[in-house]
Amino acid sequence: MISTTAAFAFSWVCGLVLYKLFTTGRRKKTYPPGPPTVSILGNAHIFPKKRAHIRLTEWSRMYGDIYSLMIGNGVVAVISSYAAVKELLDKQSSITGDRPNFHIGDVVTGGVHLAQMQSNDPNWSLMRKAARSMMTVPKCNEHLPIQRAEAIQFMHEILENPALYPKHAERYTYSVISSVVYGIRAPNLKGQEITDFYHFLDLWNRYNEPGRHPPVDLIPILKYVPMRWALWKREAKVVRNLRQAHYYSLLDRVQKRVDRGASFGAFMEQIVQDYESTGMDRELMASLGGGLLEGGSDTTSSYLKTLRLALVAFPEAQHKAHEEMDRVVGPDRLPELQDIENLPYIRAIIKEVQRWRPPAPLSLPHATSQDAHYGGYVVPRGATIFLNMWAIAHDDNLYENPEKFWPDRYIKAEFGTRDGVDVSAFRHTLGFGGGKRICPGINLANNSIQINTMNLIWAFDFLKMIDSATKRPIDVDVNNYTEALLISPNPFPCDMKVRSPQHAELINQALQESASTFQQFEDILP
């Protein structure tokens, strides 16, 4: 009797193991289609570890605007059309507005990062509400003086040392958001805070790239691998220590200013003063400010770097932009933000930069809190959703010659599309995400993008570098981008020259006039 029972139990266990082996990694018929799977792994063995957006775009051409990848029994849905974004992320936002579990990210951030927290976390709602209150249109209009002044300094820095354009762009974006959030600007590149910030932000972005780290959330046992054998744990510790030191230091400087009664309206001053009523502890306050600093710095600097690349690589677009700028603004004054309404080709350049090389080609992943439906398929509860903006922006069915930087497409059609394309689901804010996870900093970012695009085109010629040996222009590689969650061009040869002595004189004069604007943001406390 005992031997029969034991044999039955053994057979049952073996059957269960075989069933698991047979079914784990398989795609259910109700899920969106996708690449063939293998037992246990599903598609984990073919998930790209670098430049994932390129491979995921290739699959979208094979499997349609929604397809799925199996990572073990976990489901990853990739959406690659405006219609899918509108239906899944916007209309069904209440069930697709979550974030997937991200243990590695939680190790780095302590689980309190505005962009990565679960939407059912009360702290996320608290931080989101505070962030949105700071980024309304009226509030962003209050920030315009410092944005204008920083943009003038950006032009002046290029005048002085055009070879450091990427660093100047980083200083500009960091200084603007740091001024708005903390009331502390970065007056030059020598400050250690900028070096430290972009060092850990670069590590963090590369660390966040899909496929870059092991699937800890799908294979939880990996969490217990000793640190000496787990590179991701060692990297996470480094990034966490750097982030905490930076954000707590900034928060402490704000606290000291508040304590001595020297507040002048910076966002974190209000948070520090009202921390009891907001319910935020010190860690939440540091994370809120830091998250805003990250979100406001990297994407805009990426835009500015790509703008330069596009104008160098496609001089015909630059010529048209110069002609429009000279006709509307002229050489006797700097552009003003209100000029943008009379500059349709400049607006087209902005849209084309954002389409041609989106800073976050896969955005930040969403997750489903319940089963979602699209196109007759089920995206199950707990699935990860990637918004493949690269695939949408480079869809030959939507855009004529999508690899070419051609702003004229937005002169011909509002959304830059081919004739006859249904644009009912299109929106210009796609680059800022979707649903309740859409970036709260849209208004501030758009102001920076518009001000600087006008200024740079008004002030400078963007030229190819001349080879000293051949005396011929050096072509630039428009595909040489960083490998990270947020991408930007790698260094490339470029010759930037001010368009005339009159332009240079106006920039110098405007910088002198900006001194009073800068003064209140130049916090001298250590």
From TrEMBL:
Keyword Cytoplasm: no
UniProt pathway: Secondary metabolite biosynthesis
Pfam family, one: p450
UniProt KW keywords: Glycoprotein, Heme, Iron, Membrane, Metal-binding, Monooxygenase, Oxidoreductase, Transmembrane, Transmembrane helix
MF (Gene Ontology): heme binding; iron ion binding; monooxygenase activity; oxidoreductase activity, acting on paired donors, with incorporation or reduction of molecular oxygen
Cofactors named for this entry: heme
InterPro entries: Cyt_P450, Cyt_P450_CS, Cyt_P450_E_grp-I, Cyt_P450_sf, Cytochrome_P450_fung
Subcellular location: Membrane
Protein family membership: Belongs to the cytochrome P450 family.
Protein name, entry field: Cytochrome P450
Annotated source species: Dendrothele bispora (strain CBS 962.96)
Lineage start: Eukaryota, Fungi, Dikarya, Basidiomycota, Agaricomycotina
